[in-house]
Design a protein that fits this description.
Layout (H helix, E strand, L loop, with lengths): L2 H10 L8 E2 L2 E2 L5 H4 L12 H11 L12 H10 L3 E2 L7 E4 L6 E8 L3 E9 L9 E8 L5 E5 L43 H11 L15 H13 L16 H10 L4
């Protein structure tokens, strides 16, 4: 398991956790501050950044993320290491608000339009002062998104940045086996095999796919599938001029073009 997945799994396991209450109100009393050496003082304070520090520590990746209760300090930490970007990446620490100082979370996926995050000290509305740990879906191009800190993962970074220095390869070496398309792989849905579809499209020359590689069959993946169909009309649905849905025959043909036998 790669470093990014380790911290994502750690963070997701906390979804549903809530801070304490007193006098009928949430009070910022939570388990993360006293568990992170050096951040004990931050109990009863806003704890979104502390949550990320705790996740990094629990995942064995403490040196890859800033240990701080301050979002602004987290931004400065990544910038000092030249590991800050306007593009999302899997496992990146996302920062929100002016200068990135309002709120923070952990990116577990992204596509052309959205970033998908695990965030502490938020709520169902996405507030920077919330009550627990939630999964959130946020607009990539929202003015509220300031940027992303990239941890130095051993496997590299799965990033949307076009030329990131340690970018994780997205066009994976083709498998030697041809496989069938799962029935659940359709435009607009999430499915694990969409990652394979995106990698095959890129390897066969039908990229780029902005936001790849994810499990979301979004507009950019659909456009790449249509490019494949325009060059291989035998796989296109009859009577259509734009066909974003890959079929099993087309998927097999795509695999062959990407080098599978």
């Amino acid at each position: 398991m790669g470093d990014a997945q380790k911290i994502i799994n750690t963070a997701k396991a906390e979804v549903g956790y809530h801070e304490g209450r007193s006098n009928g109100h949430w009070n910022n009393w939570q388990k993360y501050s006293p568990a992170v050496p050096g951040l004990e003082w931050s109990q009863n304070q806003a704890w979104c950044a502390t949550f990320i520090s705790w996740c990094a520590m629990k995942a064995g990746l403490a040196g890859l993320y800033p240990r701080t209760a301050s979002c602004a300090t987290g931004v400065a930490w990544f910038k000092a290491r030249n590991r800050f970007s306007e593009y999302p990446a899997v496992g990146a620490q996302v920062f929100f608000g002016p200068g990135g100082g309002s709120h923070t979370g952990l990116v577990y996926a992204f596509d052309g339009d959205f970033v998908y995050t695990v965030e502490g000290n938020t709520n169902g509305d996405g507030s920077a002062e919330g009550d627990g740990v939630y999964l959130k879906k946020r607009q990539r191009r929202s003015s509220y998104v300031y940027g992303y800190g990239y941890p130095a993962f051993a496997e590299g970074v799965d990033s949307a940045a076009p030329a990131w220095k340690d970018k994780k390869p997205t066009a994976a070496k083709p498998s030697t086996a041809i496989v069938s398309l799962a029935s659940g792989v359709k435009p607009g849905v999430r499915h694990p095999q969409v990652r394979e579809l995106q990698r095959l499209l890129i390897a066969a020359g039908y990229g780029p796919i902005r936001g790849a590689v994810t499990d979301y069959y979004g507009a950019n993946t659909q456009a790449a599938v249509n490019r494949f169909h325009l060059k291989n009309p035998q796989y296109m649905s009859r009577g259509t001029t734009y066909d974003p849905a890959i079929g099993n025959a087309g998927f097999i043909g795509l695999q062959k073009q990407a080098g599978r036998r």
